[in-house]
Structures are given as structure tokens and as C-alpha cells.
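Box 3.1. Reading complex inputs
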Amino acid sequence: MLSLAKSVISTIREDLHNAREHDPAARGDVENALVYSGLHAVWVHRICHSMWQQGWKGPARILAQLNRFFTGVEIHPGATIGRKFFIDHGMGIVIGETAEIGENVMLYHGVTLGGQVLTQTKRHPTLQDNVVIGAGAKVLGPVTIGEGSAIGANAVVTKDVPANSIAVGIPAKSRPRNPDECVKLVDPDAYVDPGSYII
Ligand SMILES: CC(C)(COP(=O)(O)OP(=O)(O)OC[C@H]1O[C@@H](n2cnc3c(N)ncnc32)[C@H](O)[C@@H]1OP(=O)(O)O)[C@@H](O)C(=O)NCCC(=O)NCCS
């Protein structure tokens, strides 16, 4: 029980740290824990997914529906989501049952990870580690978005995207990503010259 509590706390800490890394507008952890519906949606999904895996499928669906009602983010309890997953501006997101999401993936609002067929097979996308999906993008079918790739805002992706690529447009076209396009957000303090402070 104690180890479960420790792991929950460390996951929440990691998610809060991750929110600060991905959103320059993020401020203190307490404020972020209260105001980021993307974080709330992911936390509740983790409970739903564990219920789903234990066979409590009905209650998991009901909790997921409540999650959707309060956050505007619809994640099927069967979806597999890795660590450090962040949804910015969480609203209007749909993540289907057989979607698989790696580590350190980020979605903006309005993203759909949807299916194209009505059969109960693997019908939703797989996002490998370090993928970013821009606002309003639709990724449809059991396609794979390769590690380190970015999907542009409002793109519609129906084919695999290789690793370290950028895909934009409808239908989305991929091109290799330049290394300097992978720069992470830098702490704004890094830009401040300490010698310039006025005391
Ligand atoms: C796709 C994306 C990652 C491209 O980044 P980039 O490679 O640095 O792209 P650039 O800004 O240098 O643009 C390169 C070209 O692609 C075009 N382009 C950029 N994003 C595009 C998009 N989403 N759809 C269509 N074309 C796009 C640019 O207009 C430019 O065209 P040009 O060469 O004719 O001038 C980025 O534009 C994007 O869409 N990110 C999502 C961000 C987001 O959703 N933010 C929401 C915040 S609330």
C-alpha cells in the first residue's frame, strides 16, 4: 500500500514537472495541478486503464465518461499511454481504444487518434516516444508515427510517418526534421544576465 502511494506521488510529480517543461505558460505546481484539465484527464485515465485491465470494464467506461464531461478529453479506458504524456489546452481530444502512446508524447487541443474501420481489431494509431501532435490534427487508422516526429496543426494523417519527421497538410506529407527543430523549451531564467539585475 505504501509503495503504491509512493509510486502515485512520484508519477504526479513527474507529470507536473513535465507540464512545466512543455508549456511556457505553466507556473507553480500547485496552480498547474488545479488548472490543467489535460493533467486531470491523464490522471483519471490511469485509474480507468487499470480498472479496464482488471476486468472492471463497465465502471471504467463510466469513469472515462465522467472524465470526458469534466475535462473535454475523451480517452477510451483501453488506450495504452506511457509516462510523461501531456495534453496542452485539454479540450476536444479523442483517443480510441486500441491507441498506443509511448513516452514523453504531447498533444494539443482538438487532436483525434481515431479509427477508420468498425471491426474490433487494432484500428487506432501508435505514437512512438517523443512525438508531438499539433492542434486539430487527425491521425486515423492503425498507423505508426515514428519516434521524435511532429504532426502539424490540422493535418490529417492516414499513413505511417517515419521517425524524426514533420508531417503537415491534408493528406499529410512527411519530410525529415532538421536537428535544430528539436530544441526543447529553455527555462526563461537562462536568458537573464545576472549582471543586469537592478537592486
Ligand atoms: C508542423 C510544425 C511542427 C512545423 O514546424 P516547422 O518545421 O518549424 O515549420 P515552419 O514554421 O518552418 O514552416 C515550414 C513550412 O510549413 C508550413 N507549415 C507549418 N505548419 C503547417 C501546418 N500545420 N500545416 C500546413 N503547413 C504548415 C509553413 O507555412 C512553411 O511553409 P513555407 O515553406 O511555404 O513558408 C508546426 O508548424 C506546427 O504545426 N506545430 C503545431 C503547433 C500547435 O499546434 N500549436 C498549438 C498551440 S496552442
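In summary: The mean pLDDT is 91.
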